Amino acid sequence: GQNIDQPTEMTATEGAIVQINCTYQTSGFNGLFWYQQHAGEAPTFLSYNVLDGLEEKGRFSSFLSRSKGYSYLLLKELQMKDSASYLCAVMDSNYQLIWGAGTKLIIKP
Amino acid sequence: ETGVTQSPTHLIKTRGQQVTLRCSSQSGHNTVSWYQQALGQGPQFIFQYYREEENGRGNFPPRFSGLQFPNYSSELNVNALELDDSALYLCASSYGDGHTDTQYFGPGTRLTVL
Fold first, then answer.
1. Do B107 and B8 form a contact (C-beta atoms < 8 A)?
2. In Å, what is the CA distance from B45 to each residue of A42, A96, B37, B55, B59?
3. Cis peptide before B61 (omega within 30 of 0)
4. Centroid of chain to Cα A41
5. CA-based Rg of chain A, rounded to a whole angstrom?
């Protein structure tokens, strides 16, 4: 079966750095996406990785290792507005997005 | 540029009824994907439409059906509603045939089945 694993919940302090991990086992791989979802709202796109390595976009970076079936999302200089769920999704061989359950990130002052 | 819109925002139905949810894709996008998201879970892929044709389907029964119109807006129809159909239904649009294209989501329709 296809599986995406990410921690259920993480807590971090305002101004700090946090890394959210995602491991996956899917039938085929056509890229990995990270989305942010605030409670009661739609997911918003953060990043896309298809090749190994680090993609940096402002305070957010995303890393991919295809051989390890592993990705992480790194958030720097945390702000209170970063409190949200972070969803990892993999596009499989049928070009369908397989989603993790999301990691709820709680930011404390 | 207009983003993805969905209607209605909230809906309450009873078991056995039928429901139609609507989605207008972002300007310039020709692909629409539908997802079901239960509370505390990630979205589950229902199906995708590209240029009015179904372009992929997830593990949902045939009572979940859809349609895409020439202006690329879309409908999701669910027949014979069950209690487990209660969820947030998300529509996402993208440009291209959906293959690796970034999907942009609408605000969702919260469906409650009693």
1. no
2. 15, 7, 9, 12, 8
3. no
4. 17
5. 13
CA A63 – CA A32 distance, rounded (Å): 10
What is the average pLDDT across B60-71? Answer: 95
Cβ of A96 within 8 Å of Cβ of B105? The answer is no
CA distance A100 to chain B (A): 5
Query: Which residues does chain A have within 8 Å of residue B102's beta carbon, measured at their own beta carbons?
Result: 33, 45, 48
CB environment B11-35: b (16+ within 10 A), e (fewer): eebeeeeebebbbbbbeebbbbbbb
Q: Count of CB atoms within 10 A of residue B83's CB? A: 10
Per-residue pLDDT, A94: 83
Q: How much is the pLDDT for A96?
A: 86
The whole-angstrom separation of Cα A78 and Cα A109 is: 10
Of A4, A48, A99, the CB nearest to B102: A48
Judge whether A93 is closer than 8 Å to chain B, CB to CB.
Answer: no
Residue type, A64: L
